[in-house]
Amino acid sequence: MDSFAANQKKSFHIRSNSLPSKPHPVVDEVDEHLCRLKASEATSSSSSLCQKLDALQDLHDCIDKLLILPLTQQALVDNKSVDDLLEGSLKLLDLCAMAKDALMQTKESTHELESTLRRRRGDDIVGDVQKYLNSRKMIKKAIHKALKGMERLSFQKSDESSEIVSLLKEAEAITCNSLESLLSFVAGPKVPSKMSRWSLVSKLVQAKKVATKDEDSNGNEVQMVDAALYSITRKSDSLVQVEDLQNMLRNFESSIHDLEEDLERLFRRLIKNRVSFLNTLNH
């Protein structure tokens, strides 16, 4: 009788271990945010980048809740990926800081040019425009150099990693790639030494949509403003009025300001996550 009871208990124990455990609600929530971010379209305008940054903020809010769970602490104990995750969190903070600096410099130079144009109505503005373009060139060069030397992260789930670690790695890769997209947006495309007239016409037609605050326009504002400014420097080939340029610069400055605010909020969340991560490891 005792032998039968023991065998029955052993059999039940084996069956219970084979049953799938229900994921914690926070784990499901993080996974849902990751799925939405993966499904989102490529960012090509400041508005879409703001939406992406907002989504990243929501993701990292959930990750902060995930990091304080006991199951996360257990998953991270003696895990070989912990050092990689710590290094990855620093990389995200560095990328955020770089993007914040690029946005600040771009906004300042844009504001300075817009103010100059407002004061110097009717005067020759080519020199001021060229000064702005030189400043933008330095920003572009610094960003392209940084991105070139940076290995783009991609996530591949490993059988050796726990679900928690896999989620954290995937979140890191998506955040890193999104920040690199933001930097690429700020840098804009490399402008050729000689731009054809028809190339400028095409870009400036789109630029006027920004100047008239066309909310349905998803064009790259950096490319549009750069095209308009390069047109100004070609005195005999100028395709944009100063008033239109002022409107574009004001709208562009406003867009950069919105990106700055969203990026600052994300930066604070990433710092909070790193602190939570370190606290989890020290428990």
Q: Globular, elongated, flat, extended or rod-shaped: what is the shape?
A: elongated
Q: Show unreliable segments.
A: 3-20, 210-218
String of helices and strands: HHHHHHHHHH
Oligomer: single chain
Distance between the termini: 46 Å
Q: From the helix content, strand content and strand pairing, which structural class follows?
A: mainly alpha
Question: What Rg do the Cα atoms give?
Answer: 25 Å
Count of strand segments:
0
What average pLDDT do the residues reach?
78
Question: How does the major sheet shape up?
Answer: none
Helix content: over 70%
Helix count, DSSP H or I runs of 4 or more residues: 10
Q: What fraction strand?
A: under 5%
InterPro entries: BPS1_pln
GO biological process, one term: root development
Keywords: Coiled coil
Coiled coil: 242-269
Could you give a quick summary of the protein structure above?
Helix content is 76%, strand content 0%.
Structural write-up:
- This protein has 283 residues and is mainly α.
- It has a domain at 23-188 and 256-277.
- The chain contains ten helices and no strands.
- The protein has helices at residues 2-18, 25-39, 46-67, 70-76, 82-119, 126-148, 163-187, 197-211, 221-233, 242-282.
- Helix 2 (25-39) runs parallel beside helix 7, helix 6 crosses helix 9 (221-233) and helix 9 runs antiparallel to helix 10.
- The radius of gyration is 25 Å and the shape is elongated.
- The model is unreliable at 3-20 and 210-218 (pLDDT under 50).
